[in-house]
Structure formats: C-alpha cells, structure tokens
Amino acid sequence: MESTIVKSVDYNAYFGDNHVVKNVNIDIPRNNVIAVMGPSGCGKTTFLRGINRMHELIPGATAKGQILLNGEDVLEMHPIFVRLKIGMVFQRPNPFPNLSIYDNVIAGYKLNGIKLPKAEKDKIVEHSLTRVALWKEVKDSLTKKGSFLSGGQQQRLCIARAVAMEPEVLLFDEPTSALDPISTSTVEELFHELKKNYTLIIVTHNMQQAARVSDKTAFFYMGELVEYDATKQMFTNPKDTRTQNYITGRFS
Amino acid sequence: MTQLENEIADIKAEVVSMWYLVESQLKKARTAMLHFDRDLAREIVLKEKRVNAFELKLDRDCENIFALYCPVAVDLRFLLAVLKINNNLERIGDIADGIAKYVIESLSDFDHKLFTNTELITMFDDSISILSDTRIAFEKEDTILARSIFKKDEVLDRINANAIKKIEDCIKTDLGMINDALYVLSIIRKLERVGDQAKNIAEEIIFYIEAKVLKHNEEEAEKD
Fold it and tell me: CA nearest B72 in A: which residue?
C-alpha cells in the first residue's frame, strides 16, 4: 500500500478576510505525481504555497489547519527546514542570473550557509544535473551563467537547484507555461523520472498535461477541493458535475 | 455552446441519420423478402454504398475531434461509443444487403409456410423494433430503454434456437422446400445477429451515459 507523505487536515488559507482555501483535506501518496487544477482564483496556487509555508510570506496572509509532512505539522516546523524538505519550482525559469550553472545548482547550500568540500559540491552538481537530464548538455560549460541556457534548460536547472537540497517533495507552479512544446515535453518526461525519488505536486492550467503526467488529480473550485481521484478516473468519468464541466470546457 | 459541443451535436445528428438509413434498409429487406420484390432488393444493394459512406465519414469526423479537441469525460465516452455504434450499424446495413441479395438470387418466391412456421416475420418485426428502440435510446439518452433491448434480444435468440427443428420438420413434409428452407434459415441467422448488434449498441449507449461497462458482464447487465 502507498504511504502518505503529505496530508492536509482541515487546511484553510486567507488573505486578510478573504478566505481563499476552504477546509481542504487531502492525502498525497509518496512517489506519486499529483496534478492540481482549477479555474483562475480557485485557490490551487495558494494551497500549493501553503504546503511549504510560502503562503505566509505574503503580508496579511494566514493559514489554519494542518499540513502534515510524514505525520509532522509543517506549521509547527521552522520554515527554512520545511523548504529544505519541500522544494519549489516556479512558472518562469528563475536561475540566479549572476551565478554560473555550477553555483546555481548549489545555491541552496550557499544561501543556507552550509559549507561543503569541493569534492562534495562537485558530486551534488553532477548528481542533480543528471537527475534533471541536463548534465550531458552542460557538463563542459558549468562556469557559464545560467541565463545563457535556453528556457527549457533554465527550467531544468531550477529543478536541479531544488533537487540538490535532497527534498522529499517538489512543488511545481505551472512549470511549463512559459516553455515551448519541445521543452515542455522534456520537462514532462522528467516528471516520470523524478517521481522515482520524489513526490511531485504540480499546479497546471494545462489539462492535457495533468492527464499525461499525473497519477492523481485534484480539482479546486472557489477555494474548495471538489474532487480528488486517480487521473484516469477523473478524465474518463469524473464524479462531480463541476469537474466534468471544467474538464470538458463547459464551465460558465 | 462550445465548439466541441457543436461538433458533438453534429456527430450525433449524423449517427441518427445513418440509423434511419439502416432502419429503412432493414424494413425494405423485410418487404422485398415478403413480396419477393427484386427491384426493391436491388435498391437496397445500391443504397448499401451510402451506409458504407456514412461509416467512413463518421470514423473520419471522430478522428478529427480526437486530434483537434482531445475530448475527455462524457465527450470522450460519447465518441468512443459512436465509433462502435457506427461499426455495428454498418454491419446491420450489411445484413439488410445480404437478405436483399438472397431475394435477387432466389429463382422464385419463398414458400410463405416457412415464414409462418419459423416465426420469421415476427423476428423481422422485432429486429426492426429493437433497432428503432436503440435509436430512440441514443437520441433521448434513455438508459432504461437501452436496457430493455437485452430482454428483447432474448426473443430473437429463442426464435433462432428453435429454427433448425422447425425447418427440419418443414423439409421432412416437403423435400421440394429445401432451397427455400436454406434461404430462410440463413435469414433467421442474420436477424439473430441484428439482435446481437443492437445489444452491443445498447451497451455502448449505457457506457456513454452512465460510464458503466456492461460488455461481457451478463450478471451486471441483468442486475442493472
């Protein structure tokens, strides 16, 4: 049986008085890819950012309930520790423009003041870039700036930066929306590889992407988790009319 | 309505048109057989090409929707069901065509005593009625009517099962009937298949509307 790695219990998120995520209860199994979808403003990104406590970085943002990582409430943990365990990749590739590819990969260690011997750093860089299928493409240009890479390569570099910290969970907020179809396909292939070692939670507006890459799909609407089921089930026979209307484009 | 909804509505209208054509072919096959009307039989054979053209067009239209719209959920189930219904309707068209060809081939009118003894006319009427019921079930998305097909198909199965004995009895009393008897038996076999095709169609209608797979699941079909 699959074990649960992330569990939200009666999770609520607010921006001031605006209640944007309402009483979400969800179990996320280890080494699965979970797609989170829903119309704009449904609370999916807020929920995602709540998982690694980035939600609270916004002034006036608050949260109630629990997000459990391996049974421990992340709201009780130190945020930095949470973000080491739960990495995040954003919509637009955002490598540090002034850092080399090498330094981008180990930026998490530097920023957290973790000093490593050169051999150890080399190992992490090679390992992380291999995991994101970028090593062969950049191994001879590790000293070049990350911003010299193509959009797809930059996004994989950002994933490598997250992977370098050896997290357990990786959060992706519309990770391919700024990429061309070829780069999108490369990143999607990567998800299949990454899930062998990590649990992936992906917010996406691209329903076909959700169908292609995820094991389970969660559908949010007006802050509520409407339906959460195996992706195959959701895309062939959704239980809730709202889900059916959304995925078939009949939403009004 | 979204563009996909429009496309699906067009496909539905197209399937219904094909259904009417196939129903008309089967009705004409009955008349041609009953009145030994060879001209009508020839008309059926000619119109079979239209049935085939419908099948090809529907296949192509469904393929285009799959490629262009990536349908999911009820839309996906609808198109998958249409592909199979299309195939079943085309086969029923072939059956009408086959019966018409028997009328053309036969040297003289069939012995009507065989029709009465084997319940062939009842079987023909039931086949046409079942086909028409499946169309109504499809048009109105009526799964209760679709489920009623399973029971009606049993009548055709029973007539088919009893046919050999009845034909045998007829031949025993009049050896001159052998030729006609073989035609009648072949027609009965064909009509039994119409029942099977209609049952397949009913299963597809239920799959499309309720997302339930009844194929190869007699118990579930009866329970439902």
Answer: A235
Inter-chain CB proximity B211 and A237 less than 8 Å = yes
B169 burial (CB, 10 Å; 0-12 / 13-18 / 19+) is: exposed
Q: What is the DSSP letter of A145?
A: B
The arrangement of strands across the sheet holding A199-203 comes to A86-89, A169-173, A199-203, A33-37, A216-221, A224-230
Q: Which residue of B2, B5, B73 is in closest CB contact with A236?
A: B73
* B134, B138, B142, B144 alpha-carbon torsion, rounded to 10°: 30
Q: A155 near A187, Cβ under 8 Å? A: yes
A210 touches chain B (CB under 8 A): no
Mean pLDDT of chain A: 94
A208 vs B70, B74, B77: nearest CB: B70
Residues of A whose CB is below 8 A from B70: 208
Question: What is the tens place of the pLDDT at every residue in B11-59?
Answer: 999 999 999 999 999 999 999 999 999 999 999 999 999 999 999 999 9
Residues of B in contact with A235 (CB under 8 A): 72-73, 76
Residues of A in contact with B5 (CB under 8 A): 250
Q: Where are the beta strands (DSSP E) in chain B?
A: none
Q: What is the ipTM of this complex?
A: 0.72
Give the global pTM. Answer: 0.83
User: Looking at beta carbons, which residues of chain B come within 8 Å of A247?
Assistant: 72-73
CATH architecture of structural domain A4-247: 3-Layer(aba) Sandwich (3.40)
C-alpha torsion angle, residues A203, A205, A206, A210 (rounded to 10): 30
Residues 6+ apart with CB under 8 A from B46: none
Question: Nearest residue of A to residue B78 by CA position?
Answer: A236
Determine the 3-state secondary structure of B93 from DSSP: helix
Distance from CA of A201 to the nearest CA of B (A): 22
Distance from CA of A249 to the nearest CA of B (A): 7
User: Residues 49..78 of B with a Cβ closer than 8 Å to A: which?
Assistant: 70-77
Residue of A165, A83, A84 lying closest to A125 (CA atoms) = A165
What is the C-alpha radius of gyration for chain B, rounded to an integer number of angstroms? 19
CA distances from B95 to B19, B42, B92, B147, B193 (A): 14, 14, 5, 23, 8
Phi-psi region of A228 (alpha: psi -120 to 50; beta: other; left: phi over 0): beta
Report how far apart, in Å, the C-alpha atoms of B108 and of each of A86, A174, B104, B119 are: 84, 74, 9, 21
Domain boundaries defined on chain A: 4-247
